[in-house]
Every structure is written in structure tokens, then in C-alpha cells.
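Replying to the earlier thread about multi-chain prediction with a worked example.

Input:
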Amino acid sequence: SGPGEPRYRVVLLGDPGVGKTSLVNLFAGVQERDPLEQHREAVYERTLCVDGEETTLLVMDTWEPEQPPGIPRCQRGRGEESWCRSQCLQVGNAYVIVYSITDRSSFESASELRIQLRRARQAEDIPIILVGNKTDLVRCREVSVEEGRACAVVFDCKFIETSAALQHNVAELFEGVVRQIRLRQGGK
Ligand code: GDP
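Result:
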């Protein structure tokens, strides 16, 4: 990766278990993940060639769920936790909001995250891609593709359905992120 290429930070948001880490591992080309390795903090860098031009994405899989009150947090106060969350909402050049099509509450969380993001970055026009993951789990679907699409229209963002398990649409997702970033850079 040369010094001249643009680099952008892409932050993954979404409920635990929706597939953020699986998606970023596919993006980064991580073959197998040690199940004992439970790193929460993770930033992956890769240079993509999209439409004949190279762009480097730093994809951050650092989003922490909001802990329900009453659950003990080891060495982490409420203040620190919300600091991490607000940092995530501040540092991205683009956002990927992931829900699972098998989990309606994760879809509702995605809308909530979109609202939080809008609040945190008021005047800015940041690229956001709404992602419905786990399309391979056909029989467990709780959120239709039409609902996902309609939600993206309301929230003025792009939409794609993916399956990390089948590696379906994952490359397209990150290429879409690059294109959305470029569109806002002024027609590159
Ligand atoms: P995260 O908490 O959002 O980072 O979610 P993970 O990537 O850790 O995934 C949570 C669980 O869902 C893991 O057991 C994954 O193997 C599984 N998973 C992730 N993506 C898919 C998918 O597209 N299809 C299926 N069937 N399972 C998936």
C-alpha cells in the first residue's frame, strides 16, 4: 500500500451476535478465528481496488454493547463504556450498521444507532450502509428484505443483505463503502 492512497476509517455498529466480527474477518482475509481469542478491540486494514482505483479502509470492530443496568462490569465504569461508544460515533469516515435478519430486536437497534449517529454527527453527510446479515438462515428470517430496504430509505442510507457464513455480498458491501466515500469526496 503506497503513501499516496487515501485511507478511511469505517466503523461497524450493531448488536452483539449480528455478525460484525465475521464480516470484518472476511474483509481482512482472516481464515480461521481462534474461538478462545476474545479480542474486542480490533482494527483491520486493507487496500481495495474499486473501479480501477485503490483505497485503504481501516475497519473498526470496536463497538461495545450498552450493558443493561444491574450486570456487573469488570473494571469498567459506566463513564468509560459510554466514552468508548461516543468515540466510535465520532471517528468514522463511514459507518456500517449491521443487524441480523433473524433477530428483529437487532433491526430495531439498528434504527436506534442510526438516530444516535445522526445526533453525534449533526451537520455531516457521512456514508452509512445498513446491512441485514445471516441471509443463509432462511427459515429463521424475522425481518423481510422489503423492511430493510424501507428502513434504509427512511434513514437515507444504502442497504445490502449479506451472509458471512456463505461469504455472500461481503466484498460488495465493502466496495459499496468505498464508492459511497468517493461520491462524497467530490466525484472521484
Ligand atoms: P458480532 O458479535 O456482531 O461480532 O457477531 P459474530 O461475528 O461474533 O457472530 C456471532 C455468531 O453468528 C457467530 O456464531 C457467527 O458464526 C454467527 N454468524 C455470523 N454471521 C453469520 C451468517 O451470515 N450466517 C450464519 N448462519 N451465522 C453467522
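The longest strand covers residues 43-50.

Feel free to reuse this layout for your own posts.
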